[in-house]
Amino acid sequence: MSTGKLQAARGTQDVLPAQAPERLALERVARRVLEGAGYERIETPTFEATDLFSRGVGTSTDIVQKEMFTFRDRGDRSLTLRPEGTAPVMRAYLEHGMHKLPQPVKLWYWESFFRDERMQAGRYKQFWQVGAEAIGASGPSVDAELITLLHAILSEVGVGDLKVRLGSLGTAQTRAAYRERLVAYLRTHEERLSAEVRERIDLNPLRAFDADDAGTREVMAGAPLLLDELDAGDAEHFAAVRARLDAADVPYVIDPTLVRGLDYYTRTVFEVESGALAAAQAAVGGGGRYDGLAEQLGGPATPGIGWAAGIERILIAAEPSLHPVAICDLYVAGEGLTAFALAAQARKAGLAVQQELAGRSAKGALKQAARLRATCVALVDETAGTIELRDTESGEQTVATDAAQVIARALKGRHPG
């Protein structure tokens, strides 16, 4: 840290006032779309017992092996800043007896997460995600619904050139049999694989599909594909998900090499990319089904599916139309008791009110009101006991003698007719 200066930790960023409106606009869209479909807001703690992620996410994942911020508390318990949202939501589902509620339990969140990974466009060591989870239903309709909702949110906020990649990992039994075949194939071509992939052949062979190394990619081009080995039930489920996406006019491409970075996924997996982002960081969000997660956490067998999307990534890829101007219904020019009381009463009436607090002259206050695009301006004369009200759109000027008249006029400007 340079002398005399305080700086944010490397890998984090401040959200400045000028950036807040676009985030709020995105949150409003997400809330309307998700809550309109029956998803309810949930918030989980910033840190959890480390065991939740080692058991739920998987010890073979990069998240657990390399990326978690883990520390010990005063009771010598191992705690971790949450690196993802699904395991905490499932923990809350089990802990609070949500299985007793009508199923599926549909939840959504808007929270910060933490991973010690290399910084890239729209990804920091502390980052924000919007996510949705549906727990307690195993049918293909809930899979398709969640994909459709994510696509709807991204489309509405103007994320350009969307591409949904869709795949299936089958059930745990299907994947276990396929894993043996893949390990054997990788061992046969081991000398052509990168050192990192060779080290993880037995630990997590499916991650070889994500490798950037040219030699590894050549080997993986001829690797057996899990989609070719789905059993009848897996294949039927995958076909039913596709049929529902077709019915909802959600375009997608089938990607037999799609591998999500978490061990708990089963059957449907998906990722949504945007052509507005650089190719290497094109993913905006993704998720999949995790029918074995509850059991991994010590609960009963419970199906589930969900997704998460990066707030920072979405905002980079979204159209400028997402960035609204803050609304100011009434600007009160004056700092005396009358002006202060007027501002307070107008807020109680439901108006968005800003008051002059910097000692500007009437002319300066009018300029500030113009910057804020205030609908009405009230110039308060404390001595005369009058209030000059100006409609900034029509230019009409009237004189009011009390707050009620000002509020009525401002409300009319906000709600014409």
UniProtKB/TrEMBL annotation:
Pfam family, one: tRNA-synt_His
Predominant subcellular localization, coarse grouping: cytoplasm
EC identifiers of the protein: 6.1.1.21
Aminoacyl-transfer RNA synthetases class-II family profile domain boundaries: 1-317
Catalytic reaction annotation: tRNA(His) + L-histidine + ATP = L-histidyl-tRNA(His) + AMP + diphosphate + H(+)
Alphabetized UniProt keyword annotations: Aminoacyl-tRNA synthetase, ATP-binding, Cytoplasm, Ligase, Nucleotide-binding, Protein biosynthesis
Molecular functions per Gene Ontology: histidine-tRNA ligase activity
TM region positions: none
Superkingdom of origin: Bacteria
InterPro entries in UniProt: aa-tRNA-synth_II, aa-tRNA-synth_II/BPL/LPL, Anticodon-bd_dom_sf, His-tRNA-ligase, HisRS-like_core, HisRS/HisZ
Subcellular location: Cytoplasm
Subunit structure: Homodimer.
Family: Belongs to the class-II aminoacyl-tRNA synthetase family.
Designated name of the protein: Histidine--tRNA ligase
Protein's organism: Paraconexibacter antarcticus
